[in-house]
Amino acid sequence: MNSALGTSFAHLHVASAYSTHYGVTLPEALAEQAAAQGANFLAVTDRDGLYGAVKHVRACVAAGIRPGLGAELCVHDEEYRPLGRVVVLAHGQTEGRGYAALCRAVSAAHAGGTDRRGTGQRGTGQHGTGQHGTGQRSALTPASTGPSISRAQLADLAGLASLTVLLGPDSDVGLAIARRDNTDAAARLAHWQRALPAQAVVLEIVCHLAESGTVGSVTPATRMLALAEKSGLPAVFSNAVRYGTPDEAVTADLADAARFLLPLAELETPQTNGQAWLKPAGAMRQVARMIVDAGLHDDGALERLLRDTEQLADRCSLDPVSDIGLGRPRMPEARVIGVTGDPVTELWRRARSGIADLYSASGSRAVEAAHAQLAHEMKTVEHLGFASYFLTVSRVADIIRGMGIRIQARGSGVGSVLNYALRTSSVEPIANGLLWERFLSPQRQTLPDIDIDVESARRHDIYREVFRAFGSDRVSLMSMTNAYRGRGAVRDAGLALGLPDAQINVIAKQMWRFNARDFRRALEEKPELGALAAEVRESQQLDLLVDLTARLDRLPRHISVHPCGVILSDASLLDRTPVQASGMGLPMSQYDKHDMDPMGLIKLDILGVRMQSAMAHAVEEHHRLTGESIDLDRVPLDDAKTFELIRSTRTLGIFQIESPGQMELVGKLQPEVFNDLTVEISLFRPGPMKNNMPLKYLQARHGEVSPDYIHPRFEPILRETNGVVIFHEQVMRLFDELTGCGLGKADVFRRHLGKPEQLPQIEEYLREKALARGFSVKVIDQIWTVLAGFGSFGFAKAHGAAFALPTYQSAWLKTHHPAAFLAGLLTHDPGMWPKDLIVAEARVLGVPVLPLDVQSSALDYRVEDLADGSQGIRLALPELVGSTEAERARIARHQPFSSLQDFRDRVNPRRRTFEALARVGALDTFIGYDRARRHELLAHIQSLRGTAVVIRADQLAFEVELPVPRYSGDRAGAITSLELRGRTQTDLELLDLNLAVSTHQMTRFHALFKELGVTPASELGNLPGGTEVLLAGVRRATNTPPMRGGRRVVFISLDDGTGPVSNVVFFHDAQERVGGQVFQTNYMLVRGRTRRSGARGVSVTGENLWNLFDVARQVKERHAVERAAAQEAASAAAYAAELAAHPSAQLSSSGASGTLHQLNAAQSA
Amino acid sequence: MPHIIDAQVDVELSADGDPRAFIWNRFEHTVIGQPQAVFKRTRWWENEGIPTRIDTELWRLDASRGGEEQHRYDLRRGMDGSWVLALDWG
């Protein structure tokens, strides 16, 4: 390039915001800024990885500049002595060799860090360890944590002219220079030169114009330049950039505070000044001149430095396609997916045989239709070359099924007959009106995406099996970037300012339901933040906190393993993505979901769904107790009792339809067939809700208005939803009917509906074609209004149908096997409601939850047949707060126990666990289930001294009695444990289990409720609309669903122990009246008015809200006063009677007259 | 001993952005040699509001008035681009 002397400067060393807690500017902003400054090249060299690499390359392509990629890595020598941090840059125009070497170097650094203890978020290596800070002191501390690559490995990878290593101020050479030890610096440099291939080593000159004698001053820079001249090595100039513009230096300060976990005022090595920004060419040249001028360099030194920088940039310019492979998908090799011949032929064969199996029962017409659809789909698959993809996904599905794990495909892939025939998906697409083109078409620009739901409890097993089957050089987990949100942002900003923890906690607790960058506006607008807003006005520091919090919002914070993404590729995978260990030990790509498509990485979402585990548990329990096997996937989809239960709105625990809003909608909609569930689930989405679609649909469904199909030709498309457009598939069909554009093109139009700037073009096309196809202007006007209003909202019917299946299955289980189903819910906790509510539901359904008992409680919730023929659910051991997994495993393993001694010897519980078990009654078995003796039991356990006898698992217990002494007479009363005294079983359970199973925690308030006239939740449904009511209970859920009109509405679900929750809605005016209590009070009394919604639903519009404990106290105080008054009155009456009986008695008794006075006073008051 | 001046001055910059001359007390002082810039960080969190920069810009340079003996000076540039002659080092 000829710009060395011109207006362009090539930055070779730049950390993006994906260098978490270090860089603070997003790659897109950096690339745009560089281009605007006239640069034609920009490298991003994130710390310990390529976290921002794909975003950077794409941003450079968009900005029209050449991308470079590298990473800042720690290096160690053969004896694990740290050699500081270097920048490793990939060479371009090498057919990907440079980029591959860089990926492998980063992976090697993560695999080779000398400490392998770390898990999870260790990956980013910057988490508060402060190990590799900006300061010179820290960079040479032993590489005990964080990623580090050995110099020998780096040398190997740098072979074939793949990489350049920049030795800058943080390298061992630079640190020696900073110590003014030129001899050591020269020796260390010589070592690097010997170790690495020729021309792979370059010195990096950095100067931030800091004060003389500090890091980043001119002196070390000029000495480093002299070292380069002396050793005959090229030197390049960089600014070790951490942010785009000077004003972002503040954010970098915050990042440092967060990295070191110290307030700004206490940072040992804060950034020396605010000069690490992406300076334009002029400013860089100015600094370079000062460096050259500060030392003794020859005349050409300045131009040589800038020219060498430019030349290295040329060398490191990557071609997005030939070097990085952007946009080129790579599937696993045929042999890996068990295919020997041509994948296309194999795919045809498997799909045809699948159709024969699955459709033959439905008649020959269905078979024909399926074959026709398959031919249609295969045309696209062959055209796009995705045959291997489908085989890969179906291979994974086979692997999972082979492990005996429940599996359910979700997403637009459900719309494909091919996926159904391959048994990747279990929803039949043709009869359900699903569309292939919603999933894949030649017009779709992105890689197909099939999501697979599995039992959450088995997800990791599946991952390991997939790694085993495909080979770990072809599989990786995907990562996700976690960005700052309100609470995290305010905590780190508060930390930086040195605010006290307690104060930050109080503020952080209020940071929800708004974006941190809108903090200031939220303070002005939200009534519940009023108190905080007042404090902010008073305090300069809090005022600063508000703005700093906004600064951090949305910045990448750390990466972690994505909950479901598995990347499947061919053997070149590790040349195209760096990997690091995830928390579960398996390698995880440093790229996130946004990077998958551009990198041509095939991602499969294998999502753990707790409901699948819960259902699997229910099926297992049923099998264990009865020997019967239930195949949920073969349960008929038209069971009348199941729909009856759903229509009753007692949907707590049922997949997808258990939230208060869903209960209300189910009540109004009254589903009768499977498709109604698909519709219901699709309606309950932000888009449709905002567009008032539920109301329109319900009116048409219940015959309040007749369906408006606009035109007879639309009727087949809109009949299933009574004329209301709900599904993406309907929009696509409408486009196709109107314009004849084909469904693939129609899906493109559908997606563009969400972009206002596209609408005029679409409208023009549609009007022209529709007129030609015989639609009147009036009809076109009408349908266009509907389509344009639809926007990108709505829901793919494929999603809805895929969700509706587990919804139906879970409802079926709840209807027919409630005990097993609830045991599944309690074990795997799949829903939105806390366990107490599921316990309450069980109580209402006549399935008691049995207390914890070391003789029968297992590691999960088990169904027990009870003496009266009914069934109960036994509380599981993991609920015991503070117990260890090992203790619980020992209990489960050695059950049953013959005595307390036997229990103690075999379980060897810690004192804490032992006592907790006694307190909640889990050891009552050893006192004959006589609760009264629990005091004795606990006292006895507390008096035990010495260690338990350790006996081997296979050994018989010592039959030495460890009887609980039985006290009688006076001593019985003396043995009261303080921990038990005055506490009910419910209190104890809440304390040690966080869950009350014996009775509901609200039971003790029931007398109070009666006195106050509180309506029990179970009776709410009998009240007419508009009735004023008092409700009370414990808060079980808070929802702020999207609402038409945009004003926030708060739903609170209250549980008073009498039945399902009662739902109270607080509108804006009530929220203002109630203030922060609407979110903060957990035990409450509410006054409101009933509102009937549909045949079954009732909710309450809240008007006011009180803390239940306050109310209880006030009532108690009033009682006390009344009692006192009553006593006074009684004694006064007695006195009067006495006076009447003995008129001679003296009236001068001060006590008596005083009482009378008081009484009079009380009466007159 | 440095001599505190603390006076607002007009500064003329070269094409590269370095100070080339400044006018103080109506007299032009011409910069001799390569001036050096130094950026010193501030403890901004002790003040009100978020600053646009976290450092102050100081230029240390040699300059002389007419043919007089050269002095070493510190020039400070404010956030708004205005210049202050801070010190005369003699």
From TrEMBL, chain A:
Kindly give the NCBIfam families that the UniProt entry links to this protein.
Answer: polc
| SUPFAM superfamilies cross-referenced by the UniProt entry | PHP domain-like
Q: Which Gene3D superfamilies match?
A: Bacterial DNA polymerase III alpha subunit, thumb domain, Metal-dependent hydrolases
| UniProt region (Disordered), positions on chain | 112-147
Q: Where is the composition biased (Gly residues)?
A: 120-133
Q: Which GO terms describe its molecular function?
A: 3'-5' exonuclease activity; DNA-directed DNA polymerase activity
Polar residues bias (residue ranges): 138-147
For the biological process aspect of GO, one term held by this record is:
DNA replication
Q: Where is the Polymerase/histidinol phosphatase N-terminal domain?
A: 10-77
Tell me the enzyme class. Answer: transferase
The name this protein carries in UniProt is DNA-directed DNA polymerase
The organism of origin for this protein: Cryobacterium ruanii
SMART domains xrefs: POLIIIAc (SM00481)
* One Pfam match: DNA_pol3_finger
From TrEMBL, chain B:
Task: Give the domain of life.
Answer: Bacteria
User: Which species does this protein come from?
Assistant: Cryobacterium ruanii
In its UniProt entry, what is this protein called? Answer: Uncharacterized protein
